[in-house]
Write a structure and sequence with these properties.
alpha/beta; 3 domains; five-stranded mixed β-sheet; two-stranded antiparallel ribbon
């Protein structure tokens, strides 16, 4: 019997479906009834994968419904799918074509199933994302304040004060949720024993990197995007570069690493050793990011605090 793979192009209003190898196509409304109908349809097919792109949240209701029904729902990075389409000379783009490409991608690439965050985890992630949005708005307003006239400055100052209060509210709610969940609270307490890891970093890692402590050092580094890729061809030996991964995790990890280089003996020693070998500062910082991440991963896995003078990489 042929292996069945389903591609679903998700938009705000509709769910366009393509099935391989039968090339059957369907369309459902992106609402509660349409999602339930699609789940029933997929249940009859018994597919190996039901693949969709991450579309900023529109896919989450369908993904959750599929997993709840015991079906293999998977969400993937849209860039990967678009690159796959270009490689297969599928340059046109419509909902129907996108569904076909997704089904083909599922069949050819066979992406692995991933854990879908539960409602509690999604709400925590939304709080962290909202905090980042508020911070960005506050930064923009502070930049405007510098060049504004007196009358406009008053309005901007009031908005900044309002944003400060909203950020405090989000922080309080986030802390409350962490304290009410023993697993999250334990993970936060363990991570914060590492010098350089503050409250914001710990909360961001808990919400945006739930795999921390569950993967080995190579997989967690690749997932975040701090594992350099080779760029060699023939006699040419190119400079290794990091690529892809979770940018939101990487940005907060970068800031934590800058702090750790100053106050964490293990990370500081790593940085100084690489600089002494004439490594560029950015290369040394990325190496320290990876070492810090691997250490946090081992700590969360083993439930152990940071070892300031011992080995942390595992």
């Amino acid at each position: 019997m042929s292996e069945v793979n389903v591609g679903v192009d998700v938009s705000k209003l509709s769910l366009d479906v393509s099935v391989r190898p039968s090339n059957e196509r369907r369309s459902f409304e992106n609402n509660e009834d349409g999602i339930q109908s699609l789940v029933i349809f997929c249940g009859e097919l018994k597919p190996l994968r039901v693949l969709m792109e991450a579309t900023g949240g529109y896919e989450m209701a369908l993904l959750t419904a599929l997993v709840t029904a015991g079906l293999p729902g998977i969400s993937v990075n849209p860039r990967q799918v678009r690159d796959f389409a270009k490689a297969n000379n599928r340059l046109a783009k419509t909902d129907r074509i996108d569904a076909d490409v997704l089904a083909h991608f599922a069949e050819a690439i066979k992406p692995a199933l991933r854990e879908v965050p539960n409602e509690q985890s999604r709400e925590l992630l939304e709080l962290v994302q909202r905090r980042r949005q508020l911070i960005d708005m506050r930064t923009a307003e502070k930049n405007r304040l510098e060049h504004a006239t007196a009358k406009v400055r008053q309005s901007i100052a009031k908005h900044i004060a309002w944003l400060n209060k909203r950020i405090e509210d989000v922080d309080d709610e986030t802390k409350r949720r962490i304290r009410q969940t023993p697993a999250w609270r334990e993970k936060e307490e363990i991570m914060r024993t590492a010098k350089g890891i503050g409250e914001t970093t710990a909360l961001t890692l808990i919400s945006t990197l739930p795999e921390l402590g569950r993967l080995n050092r190579k997989k967690i580094s690749s997932l975040v995007g701090v594992a350099p890729f080779n760029r060699d061809s023939g006699m040419m030996k190119g400079r290794r570069r990091i690529y892809g991964g979770r940018a939101s995790v990487r940005s907060v990890l970068y800031m934590a690493t800058l702090t750790a280089i100053r106050c964490n003996p293990v990370i500081k020693a790593t940085y100084e050793r690489l600089i002494a070998k004439a490594k560029p500062p950015k290369v040394a910082i990325v190496a320290c990011m990876r070492k810090l991440l691997v250490g946090l991963n081992a700590m969360c896995r083993d439930g152990k605090e940071w070892a300031p003078h011992g080995s942390i990489a595992a």
